[in-house]
Design goal:
- By secondary structure, the protein is an all-alpha fold.
- Among the domains are: 41 residues; 159 residues, Serine Threonine Protein Phosphatase 5, Tetratricopeptide repeat (Alpha Horseshoe); 82 residues; 58 residues, no CATH class.
- Helix 13 runs antiparallel to helix 14, helix 14 packs across helix 15 and helix 25 packs antiparallel against helix 26.
- The longest helix is centred in the N-terminal third of the chain and has 39 residues.
- The N and C termini lie far apart (141 Å).
- The relative contact order is 0.02.
- This is Tetratricopeptide repeat protein.
- InterPro entries: TPR-like_helical_dom_sf, TPR_rpt.
Length: 612
């Protein structure tokens, strides 16, 4: 029995292993099918792009060739001639590693042909420039021993003579000159890209002196000057800009060099206002022409940014904004964009007080609507904050609240935050948003309570909230309110709140003291409320308040009526007739009551006569 169980277990195990092998093999087959399918997909190249590359090569615009090559898929089926063309372009722009790789591809595609020989000769030059002289010599020796020696004997001899100092005869001096030119051009770019500017400078002078074309040198000198400027060496940059202007005036490079010289003069000046106006005007003229003539050049982007900077430093806010918006539209991915957004925001913000002074408020509200997207991209919360603050000062609460809320989810400088939240809390109170106002005030008190203690708006909110919680503490704060710069109507409002809060809490003596203060501006109604409240509960205080009310408002019918009622209730009938008589002459319910009272009194006297 035991043997039977073991046999069954082994059979099951063998079956499971078989299933695993089948499934694994199937999945592997699917993966291989996928690889084969993907490999079989044809990678095509845009013929127009290849034609552009060929045209740029013919014009010797090797940098454009390299730039266009980036658009070709890595596995694109190029011909050996096309690989060679690209290899030469990378070589002459100093990208030696890429040049070597492309030259090897070109050579491997067309072994035993002239294309292969040219590619191998290019490899020799690249290896030499990379410092691999022995390897370069081996490659050259191999070329000398194969069929390439027949068709390219002069080129091989020129390389042997110029690069390896071998004593060989070269019949064509022009070939030596051309080789010296291209070697030094490639070496120049190689050092330039590696940041070795002194070595690049030396290679460039060799290019000019040994074989390069004099006219071509101007663009190389300009690149060298630009590299020095980018490295933070304006002295050497200036040296080459001046050389270009002297040697190649009226060329594109000379024009751009003049711009750079003006730029260096402007940026070197500590106090820009002391620069001659003509210097700044000329610099702005160069900027405009560069943007018009060479919009695709990298220097046009930098010139545009400099223009914005100049107008900002001149405090010409309108032109700063105009140029900033133009820049952001033309160069959305620029590395200068953060600074441009900052200039745009500061310029726009600076317009707020100026436009309010001129009464051009519609200009600002229209700007806030039309440029909302740009303002948000710039995180320009300051603009909305200052706009809201101006409307706040004019007590246009709803407009102020609208712009303050626009700033809520945007960036605000740290030094604005306390005032911003204070204004929001104040607006919530004015617009009767009680819960929001209380929440904002709690946050405000916790974070900036000590900082804002001297601000009148904060004192107003603090007193208002304290009066609701503790009338005695709130009353102490009223002494600070009296001395503050808070507008009178807010002081009156706080005293009114304190007065009615005291009455609600049955602090009648405190309410009376508040009533007597200068800022309360007591009305008859205030006295009447307090008189009614104290009529039964505090008779002595009632009489004190009544005497003061009579003095202040001797003709007020409600006070007269209350006095008459009080005297009759006390049993003092000697003085009441005069009071009732005065009340009969009054209009309103008090006069009506007095007249009815007289009628009742007359009826009572008649009834007494009849009885007695």
């Amino acid at each position: 029995m035991f043997k039977g169980l073991v046999r069954n277990f082994l059979l099951i195990l063998i079956f499971l292993i078989f299933l695993f092998v089948v499934v694994y093999a199937e999945s592997k087959r699917e993966i291989l099918k996928g690889i084969i399918y993907n490999a079989s997909k044809e990678v095509t190249v845009d013929e127009k792009l290849l034609q552009e590359i060929e045209n740029a090569y013919k014009l010797r615009d090797y940098e454009r060739v390299v730039s266009l090559h980036q658009k070709i898929p890595p596995l694109a089926p190029l011909s050996a001639e096309e690989f060679l063309l690209l290899a030469e372009s990378y070589y002459l722009t100093g990208n030696l590693d890429k040049a070597l790789d492309l030259a090897e591809r070109a050579s491997s595609l067309r072994r035993g042909t002239e294309v292969s020989c040219k590619a191998d000769l290019l490899k020799v030059k690249v290896l030499y420039l990379r410092g691999k002289e022995k390897e370069a010599q081996r490659e050259l020796k191999a070329l000398s021993a194969n069929f390439c020696a027949e068709s390219f004997a002069e080129e091989i001899s020129a390389i042997q003579y110029l690069l390896f100092n071998e004593k060989v005869e070269v019949s064509e001096a022009k070939l030596l000159k051309s080789l010296a030119g291209e070697i030094n051009q490639a070496r120049f770019y190689y050092y330039l890209k590696g940041g070795k500017l002194k070595e690049a400078e030396s290679a460039l002078y060799n290019f000019v002196n040994l074989g390069g074309e004099y006219a071509q040198a101007k663009s190389l000198f300009f690149k060298l000057a630009e590299a020095y400027l980018a490295k933070g060496d304006p002295r050497n940059a200036k040296r080459f800009y001046q050389l270009i202007v002297t040697e190649w005036d009226y060329t594109k490079e000379a024009f751009l060099s003049k711009f750079r010289l003006y730029q260096l003069t402007y940026e070197r000046a500590t106090v820009k206002e002391l620069l001659p106006a003509k210097t700044v005007e000329d610099l702005l003229m160069y900027i405009t022409q560069i943007k018009t003539k060479y919009p695709g050049e990298p220097i046009a982007e930098e010139a545009s940014f400099l223009g914005i900077k100049i107008f900002f430093q001149k405090k010409d806010w309108e032109k700063t904004r105009e140029r900033a918006k133009e820049f952001l539209a033309n160069y959305p991915q620029s590395s200068f964009s953060p600074q441009v957004f900052d200039y745009y925001c500061q310029a726009t913000t600076s317009l707020v007080p100026l436009k309010f002074l001129k009464g051009e408020i519609t200009y600002l509200t229209d700007l806030a609507m039309k440029e909302e997207e740009t303002l948000r991209e710039a995180q320009c919360g300051t603009f909305y904050y200052l706009l809201g603050k101006e409307f706040f000062n004019y007590r246009l609460w709803r407009l102020s609240a609208y712009f303050f809320l626009q700033a809520y989810d945007l960036k605000l400088p740290e030094n604005y935050l306390a005032d911003y939240y204070l204004k929001l809390a104040f607006l919530a109170d004015e617009l009767k948003e009680k819960e929001l106002g209380e929440s904002l005030f709690r946050y405000l008190s916790t974070r900036w309570g000590k900082t804002l203690r001297g601000f009148p708006e904060y004192l107003y909110l603090l007193t208002k909230n304290t009066l609701n919680a503790n009338i005695e503490e709130g009353n102490k704060l009223l002494e600070e309110v009296q001395k503050s710069s808070l507008p009178s109507f807010y002081k009156e409002e706080l005293y009114q709140q304190a007065f009615y809060t005291a009455i609600e809490k049955k602090k009648y003596s405190l309410a009376y003291n508040i009533l007597k203060t200068y800022f309360f501006k007591a009305l008859p109604e205030n006295y009447l409320v307090l008189l009614v409240e104290t009529f039964s509960s505090e008779p002595k205080l009632f009489e004190t308040i009544l005497e003061e009310a009579k003095t202040k408002f001797p003709q007020n019918p409600k006070i007269l009526w209350l006095e008459a009622y009080h005297l009759e209730r006390k049993g003092d009938l000697q003085n009441t007739p005069e009071l009732w008589k005065r009340l009969e002459e009054k209009e309103g319910i008090e006069g009506e009551v007095a007249r009815q009272y007289k009628t009742i009194q007359d009826l009572m006297r008649r009834a007494q006569k009849l009885v007695y």
